[in-house]
Amino acid sequence: MISLKKVTILVNNKTILKDFNYEFDENKVYALMGPNGSGKSTLAYTIAGHPSYVVKNGEIKFRHRSINNLTADKRAKKGIFLSFQSPLSLNGISVFQLLRLALSGKEEPLAIKRKIDRIAKQLKIKRELLSRPLNEGASGGEKKKLELLQAAVLNPKFLIFDEIDTGVDIDALKTISKFLDRFKNKRTMILITHYNRILKHIKPDKVLVIKNGQLVKEGDFTLPQRIEKNGYEKI
Ligand SMILES: Nc1ncnc2c1ncn2[C@@H]1O[C@H](COP(=O)(O)OP(=O)(O)O)[C@@H](O)[C@H]1O
Ligand SMILES: [Mg+2]
Q: Is the CB of 141 under 6 A from ligand 1?
């Protein structure tokens, strides 16, 4: 579904990923793990088309077509979604206004509103949070739930969740995991995580480990247990 061929990424003229090769298959769940600073978020931003992440060499394809030259906006329209590790606040724009803008011409505002209400309920997001400017004054867990809400309303085919389980309390983690487990159907997902706890709920088809910008290990759902026990040193 998404393939990276010999992709080298520069950020501020520094090479972060080097000759990265991988093909993410349709309708599979991937866990992406690795030490801090190994390049996980860089890979996520690169696929999403963040302008600061310069593709120096190589090719990124979405459904067999190169997306190297597409802006983040165009990639989003194709069905690529990134849930941010640290979601930013939006000045004066509520989640409804944002989604209405993203779906203009595609879905009626009333239908969007209904969808937001329905999904917010499933995610146990307080109503009051929905009317506030997006993420303003929201806690870590609330922000992550709002990311998931946007994902569910936009309904993309390829999603990257960058540490959706970080800064989230036990109950919120349960809610998020349950929701994601139902949501994964007929979608391709990459879950960037440091912990096995979320992967117990959403059993990944494959687990990838990157270190220093390179893929160093590929395994199954038992790999995170080993990582949790022994760390990354032995990998
Ligand atoms: N905007 C940036 N400017 C300079 N270095 C950056 C920038 N973004 C990321 N890096 C560096 O790239 C490396 C990988 O970062 P990142 O992809 O965020 O790691 P991870 O998500 O695996 O923790 C780190 O060494 C980080 O400091
Ligand atoms: Mg990161």
A: no
The answer to whether the CB of 91 is under 6 A from ligand 1 is: no
Report how far ligand 1's centroid is from the alpha carbon of 204 (Å): 25
Q: Which two tokens stand for residue 143?
A: 């922000």
- Tell me the residue length of the chain: 235
pLDDT of 222 higher than 90: yes
Q: In whole numbers, what is the pLDDT of the chain averaged over residues?
A: 94
Tokens 């459904």, residue?
63
- In ligand 1, the atom with minimum distance to the C-alpha of 163 is 21
- How far apart are the CA of 138 and the centre of ligand 1, in A? 25
* pLDDT of res. 72: 95
Write down the domain spans for the chain. Answer: 2-230
What fold characterizes domain 2-230?
Answer: Rossmann fold (3.40.50)
Q: What is the pTM of this model?
A: 0.94
- Integer Cα distance of 202 and 187 in angstroms: 13
pLDDT digits (tens, 9 = 90+) for 121-175: 999 999 999 988 999 888 889 999 999 999 999 999 999 999 999 999 999 999 9
Here the contacts of 3-7 (C-beta below 8 Å, separation 24 or greater) are 3/59, 3/60, 3/61, 4/47, 4/58, 4/59, 4/60, 5/58, 5/59, 5/60, 5/61, 6/57, 6/58, 6/59, 7/46, 7/55, 7/57, 7/58, 7/59, 7/60
Residue 213: pLDDT band with limits 50, 70, 90 = very high
Q: How far is the CA of 129 from the centre of ligand 1 (A)?
A: 31
